[in-house]
Every structure is written in C-alpha cells, then in structure tokens.
C-alpha cells in the first residue's frame, strides 16, 4: 500500500494555501465538513494575503498545493511569474465568479454615452466604455484606470478581452493596475480606479457600500468559464500519487456539497469567519445563491455566478489551458516561443483527475477539449483551441512585441 | 526548465541610469529604499536599522493604497515589503514590462539565492530590486532586514508572554484572595492550597486559579 507524506494517527498531512475569496470554499468545506478526513487526510489550510505569497510558499515547498488562479500553474511551468518549481493542475476548483464593476462616476458617463449598452451589460457594455474612452481622449482628459488582481489571472485576461472587443487597447487607451481585492473598495472610494474585474464576493461588497455598479458578470461573457484550479507542486504530485488522488476526491465531494442550494447558508456562515474570508455572511450569500445586487437598486438572478461542480466544472480541460497560454502571448507576457499543446498537456492533468474520481462513480468527460460555442463572446474573434495562433493572428488588438511567426514555428 | 533569473528586460532604463545601477560613481548609502509595512513599530525598527547601516535615503509607507503612484514618484532602487501585506501583488505587476513604471522591478531571486529567499520568507519579508541593480548591493540590506524582522518577532512573542504572565499572576492573586476570605487562611496557605490542587489534578496553577475565580463569580451572581 502506498503510504506517502507525514502521517498523524492514521491521517496523512497535506498543507494547502488559499486566498480569502469565495472560490477557496472547496478547500475550506473539504476540511470543515470532514470530506478530507473521510479520505484519510489531515488537510491543513494556510490563509495567505497575496498570490505572490502562495507562489513563494509553493516554490519553497512550505505548501504542497494551493487554491490558484488558473493561469498560475501554466506561468510557473513556463518559468514566468518568478517560479522555479513546475506546478500542475489536476482539477479545477470553480467556474465563473468574476464580475466587472465600474465606479458610480464612470457608470454615469457610460449612461450618457450609450445608455442601452451600459444598462444591458455583457459584452455590449464595453462599447459604452469605449465611447467614454474616446470622448475623454478628444477632450484631453486623464485616461481611465482599471484594476485587476494579478498579472497571471483570468481577471486580467477577461478585462482585457472585454475592452479589446470594443476596440479599447488595454495597454494604450487606459491604465491597468493591480489592486488587491481587500483594497478595492478603498481605491474606488478615493477615486484611484474607475473600474475593476475581481472575484466574488468583492464586487458585491463594492455594491453593498454604494461605491459602484456591476456592469457584467463572467458568466454572461463566457458561460462556465475557467477560474480557480488546485495547483500542486509537480514533484510532490509525482511522489504522493495516492494522497493527491484522495485530495481530489475530497475536493470534488466538497464541490458537490457547495452546489446544493440547501447548503448555501451554512457555507456562507463558515466562510464568513475571520480565519477564512472574513466578510459578512450576507455578502458571501449573494454570489453563492446567484441573487446579485448590481447597484442602482437593480437585482439580477445569475444562477451560474459561481459554479463548483455541475457542468463538469472540476474537469481540467486542456482547451482552457490553451486559452490562457494564448492570452499570455496576446498580451506580451511571454515572447519566447514554446509548444502550447505540450505545456497544456504537462500542466493540466485530466488523466490524474479521471483516475482519482474513479471510486466516486461520477460522470467524467472523455476528451481534452471542451465543446463550447461561447468563447467567441469574450474574444473579438472566435477562439479555436486546436488552432490558437491562427485565432490570435485575427485579433486586431494585441501586443505587437510578440512575433507570432516564431510561435507558429514552435507549434507545427 | 523554468529557470528564473533576477532580471526583467531592461530596455526601460535610460543609459545613464544603467551606469548608476551598476554602481559606478554611487555610494551604497545613496540607495533609495522604500519600506512598506503596516506595523508602525516594525517599520520604525527597520528604518532605524537602515539608518545605522548608513542608508539615509529611506522612505516608509504604512498605507499601501495608491502604491503604484508612490513607486512612480519615489523611483526606489529597493522595495522591502512584509508578507502580511496584500500589496505584494501590486509589485508583481512590475515584473511585467509595463508602461506603468519607468524602471522594471525584479524580485531578488535566482537559483543561487534560494537560501536568501527562504530566510526572507521565513522571517516574513520580501525584497524587490529594480532591474540591473547588482544583487551584492542588496544582500546586506536584506540580511539586516531579515534579522530585524526576526528580532521584532522575538519582541512580539516576549511581549505576548509577558502579557499572559501578568494576566496569570493577577488571576492567581485573585484566587488567593478568595481563599483567604472564604476559608480564613493566610496568603501562603492559600497559595499552597492552589498548588496542591493543581498538582493533584495535573493542571497549571493559573488554570486552577482561573477555575476558582470563575466559579466564585458564578456563585456570587447566584446570591
């Protein structure tokens, strides 16, 4: 019998890092509701306040695994993001969850420029932002400043793709800065940012404080789109195969529990504690239940605001990995050519997921590429995960410092 | 694969700046250092340490809102930040070649510096340098900061210990007072009673005293 890691009693110790965000819930619930213990694990959770801390502690081996932004394991394995240790993603922890919120001031300008687009949200709302951007340029005013949470994040790529779809160059027409989620409301209040893309529950907090308006949610732009993954040190995964499989099962069971509406109240109460997210349970309940207050008195039902398990949410689709890698190239984060499919194969590990969840008798997709029609909604051209570079060539706004022909040579 | 180096593309440095970065014609005390730490006591300890080491060009920030603008304004050579600070991620963006900052910033890390990084993370601090700065110039600054962070940690745990020792003494005194009053005994007899009870129950003296004080308060409330 495989016996890896430290054991405590009969439990095997696993150290996992997380950031106080709604989608850390699978780790918290796996621990609090006993799913980890059922699988023979002593799951120890370590709350961190920055993605940089998560990265460093994974890199130094203080943590075996962590709640990670989906692009982080890819960036780590590419040697970007200052990591030396390759990281793999054997499962996804959540889909959707993000939203784009603008300040009351910017919302007013959007309503003046294009009221229907501003009100209707989705991809169209970006066209109202574009009008404001052009008007400000014509009047010689300061460019707008948007915030996001980390360079290697879906928030960064979603916001960029959304703006670019309306002709706004995120590197030329606006300022795009990193703002840690707990500081977002303060930055909004002080007028340092005009809008931001962040995960739950921080958009709801800005609305609750009367500081902004949610103009679109990620579930509107790209339904069932990738967000957080379980990032695992590749070396640890290789020598702790049975433990990792047990962890994946515990997390999948926690995700199933989280998708049950009858558990939302209990989940919100647990997550509200200071050692986890540390904001009011009522604010956490909104994105969990999908009853979102958008600001200006508008309430909207967003049933897929955050998805933990349904719709094959935990399956690590390699097509998602390819999408993230393509965004890194699109925005000039990586200029040295590499084989996208090979990196996606090394980092995203549906094989490990499939063998881990075998005993749970749940449905597991057969392929690596998620069949989806809606990728077109977030990019300004249809994205083909089998031919990502050709898709990229057709985008009008992207980093011109990247030589796509070099990438084409590395991706026959 | 995945080799990390300490530098980001350096083409944002003006040529005369690059010469300065290489240490030509600059004294160590000319290093512009930015300290970001929300804890005012630890911040003061770090500042004092840098001052003692001959660094007089030090700015410190407690509030990190608007950090990008501050960094742009101050244009530091070295940034020191505590790991409890969510604004570390703001600095991460500066690894990316970006027009947000004039000079790209790199974390003080390469394969050979693993021990330094480990020591820094253990102590609870991280350091960033602008591209091109020789890491030999950062090493003494970082070493000093790490030792000050550790000293602060010791100070904090000593303070916590002192606080709880004081609290325990107060509880024991209170329990002694209760015994003296209710059993009509002298102070040393009351103390011996507490000690004997603690030993026979394998409990800490302070815990027995606390139990007595709580029970007494409960009984009194029932009157």
Structure keywords:
heterodimer; A: 412 residues; alpha/beta; D-Maltodextrin-Binding Protein, domain 2; 2 domains; 7-stranded mixed beta sheet; 5-stranded mixed beta sheet; 14 strands; 42% helix; B: 223 residues; Arc Repressor Mutant, subunit A; 8 helices
Task: Write a concise synopsis of the structure shown.
The complex is a heterodimer of chains A (412) and B (223). Chain A is α/β, with parallel strands linked by helices and 412 residues long.
SSE arrangement:
The complex is a heterodimer of chains A (412) and B (223).
Chain A: E1 7-8, E2 11-18, H1 25-32, H2 35-38, E3 41-47, H3 51-59, E4 65-69, H4 71-77, E5 87-96, E6 98-103, H5 104-113, H6 115-120, H7 125-138, E7 145-148, H8 154-165, E8 175-178, H9 184-189, E9 195-199, H10 202-208, E10 212-217, H11 218-221, E11 226-233, H12 234-239, H13 241-259, H14 264-271, H15 281-289, E12 291-295, E13 298-301, E14 306-307, H16 318-330, H17 340-347, H18 350-357, H19 375-378, H20 388-393, H21 404-410
Parallel strand pairs in A: 2-3, 2-4, 7-8, 7-9
Antiparallel strand pairs in A: 1-2, 4-11, 5-11, 5-14, 6-9, 6-10, 12-13
Chain B: H1 15-21, E1 33-36, H2 40-52, E2 58-61, H3 67-74, E3 78-82, H4 88-93, E4 105-107, H5 114-123, E5 125-130, H6 135-183, H7 187-200, H8 205-221
Parallel strand pairs in B: 1-2, 1-3
Antiparallel strand pairs in B: 3-5, 4-5
Explain what this protein looks like in three dimensions:
The complex is a heterodimer of chains A (412) and B (223). By secondary structure, chain A is an alpha/beta fold. Chain A contains 21 helices and 14 strands. Chain A folds into 2 domains: 7-94 and 226-279 and 311-360, Periplasmic binding protein-like II (D-Maltodextrin-Binding Protein, domain 2), CATH 3.40.190; 98-221, D-Maltodextrin-Binding Protein, domain 2, CATH 3.40.190.10. Chain A is 42% helix and 18% strand. Chain A is globular, with a radius of gyration of 21 Å. Chain B is an alpha/beta fold and 223 residues long. A 5-stranded mixed beta sheet of chain B has the order 2-1-3-5-4.
